[in-house]
Design goal:
- The complex is a heterodimer of chains A (about 160) and B (about 280).
- By secondary structure, chain A is of the alpha+beta class.
- Chain A folds into two domains: about 5-80, Ubiquitin-like (UB roll); about 90-155, [2Fe-2S]-binding domain (DNA polymerase, domain 1, Orthogonal Bundle), CATH 1.10.150.120.
- Helices cover about 30% and strands about 15% of the residues of chain A.
- The longest helix of chain A is centred in the last third of the chain and has 14 residues, at about 105-120.
- Chain A starts with a strand and ends in a 6-residue tail after the last helix.
- Chain B is built from twelve helices and 15 strands.
- Chain B has a five-stranded antiparallel sheet with strand order 4-5-10-6-7.
- In chain B, helix 11 (about 235-250) packs antiparallel against helix 12 (about 260-275).
- The radius of gyration of chain B is 19 Å and the shape is globular.
- Classes of the chains: A alpha+beta (about 160), B alpha+beta (about 280).
- Chains A and B meet through strand 4 of A and helix 2 and helix 6 of B.
Chain lengths: ~160, ~280
């Protein structure tokens, strides 16, 4: 890393971050410098999960990651979950279940749930609730989100609901 | 270079030697909240999250050595929870999965908040910290490390390398009270550990004083009052234990709870923890 810039790997591509301040969070850099507005900024203190991204194999709050410390790691944002213009299975399931209301928490939930379904193809509701406990939604009451997870899980298993 | 991403322990120590006042960044879950709010300025950072020597854990006889970079999620693993169940329980109460994936035991100690969730159990275990600097290595018992509200004995240029705790035989319980069931900063917390080889209990109060508090009189009362053969204890001893625990609390009034509530909470939590471990003998 030179004094002038550092490089972040976001959704498989390298991006240079130049003229930055040392204290910038990954969330801020993603949104304001690199043009990835998917991760949302709400609480900036790790409470709400709307800024959830994946770094390597872990889901973390990007607001609590110092951007300059995230070099040489694979960062995946909501934009990286599906090809441009297409919907991922979890996104489609959210639409099918009507799990989106204001939508502010949705990107974080999608990142978290995508990761959950990679680790567990048939999560029960308690497992889902535990997995999304760091993603706060103030609109839906979570019922339709839980429904969406089961729809997405079924589609990943090849269409069978359990 | 404002942010040094350390690749090895030597790299981190060299960076700290060059800039002893640099901010040491572990998981970032405490530091970045302050930075985002603008209440902490950041000029020089040494990020230690990817220092291999600070990762993982190993067991050596009756001691468990935890790298400072071990996360709360890792402390909830089967292996660690079988050796120090209370530490795993405490980790489970920290934040959300996202926070537990990032936050570390070393960071919890570095912050030294009275509400730090791993602290009561580490005090009860009389954990020993290995502290490194470019100049050398020193070991410090935890009660000489955490010395006040967000104050610790770490000197400029030093970092925490590992935390060593004894692996005790016998059940352990960590309890915590907050305004709701998940993702809360502790209002009062309590840990109770048993040592079935010594027929002793160890315990510690959290969040009700500038540093965690060992209720030694209460520990003596319970250790001597338990029927270790039957794992039973009388209601009278339980009441006495809870009262002595509450007595040594030094709580303050703040935005998360009143001193009176916190003292009351310690009485409840200490009795609850003891009842989860021992059967109450009412005969």
């Amino acid at each position: 890393m030179s004094n002038d810039f550092y490089t972040l790997n976001v959704n498989g591509e390298d991006h240079q971050v130049a003229d930055s301040w040392a204290g910038e969070s990954l969330l801020w850099v993603l949104r304001e410098r690199l043009g990835f507005p998917g991760a949302k900024n709400a609480c900036e203190e790790g409470e709400c999960g709307s800024c959830s991204v994946r770094i390597g194999e872990e889901v973390v709050c990007s607001c609590l990651v110092l951007a300059g410390s995230a070099v040489e790691q694979e960062i995946t944002t909501i934009e990286g979950l599906s090809a441009e213009g297409e919907l991922s299975d979890v996104q489609q399931a959210f639409i099918d279940a009507g799990a989106v209301q204001c939508g502010f928490c949705t990107p974080g939930l999608l990142v978290t749930i995508d990761h959950l379904l990679e680790e567990n193809e048939s999560p029960d509701d308690l497992t889902v609730r535990e997995a999304i406990s760091g993603n706060l939604c103030r609109c839906t009451g979570y019922g339709r989100i839980l429904e969406a997870v089961q729809i997405a899980a079924a589609s990943r298993r090849g269409g069978k609901r359990e | 270079m404002p942010v040094t991403v350390a690749r090895s322990l030597d790299h981190a120590l060299a960076a700290l030697e060059e800039c002893p006042e640099a901010l040491i960044l572990a998981g970032g879950t405490d530091v970045m909240v302050q930075v985002n709010k603008g209440s902490m300025s950041v000029d020089q950072v040494v990020a230690i999250g990817r220092v291999p020597e600070l990762q993982g854990w190993n067991r050596e006889g009756d001691w468990l050595h935890l790298g400072a970079g071990v996360t709360y999620s890792e402390m909830m693993s089967k292996e660690i929870s079988s050796m120090v169940p209370a530490l795993a329980q405490a980790s489970r109460t920290v934040g959300s999965p996202q926070i537990r994936n990032a936050g570390t035991i070393g960071g919890n100690l570095g912050t030294s908040s009275p509400a730090g969730d791993t602290l009561p159990t580490l005090f009860a275990l009389e954990a020993v910290l290995t502290i490194r600097s470019a100049a050398g290595i020193r070991k410090l018992p935890i009660n000489q490390f955490v010395v006040g509200v967000k104050q610790n004995a770490l000197q400029p240029g030093e970092l925490i390398e590992k935390i060593s705790v004894p692996v005790l035989e016998g059940p352990q319980e960590f309890c915590k009270i907050g305004p709701r069931n998940a993702m809360v900063i502790s209002v009062a917390s309590f840990t109770l550990l048993t040592d079935s080889k010594e027929n002793r209990v160890r315990s510690c109060l959290g969040t009700v004083g500038p540093v965690p508090i060992r209720p030694t009189e209460a520990e003596n009362l319970l250790s001597n009052g338990v029927n270790w053969e039957k794992n039973e204890v009388s209601s009278e001893v339980l009441e006495g234990f809870a009262s002595l625990c509450a007595e040594v609390a030094q709580p303050i009034d703040d935005h998360r709870g009143s001193a009176a509530y916190r003292r009351h909470a310690i009485k409840i939590l200490s009795r609850r923890a003891a009842c989860r471990i021992f059967s109450e003998d009412n005969t």
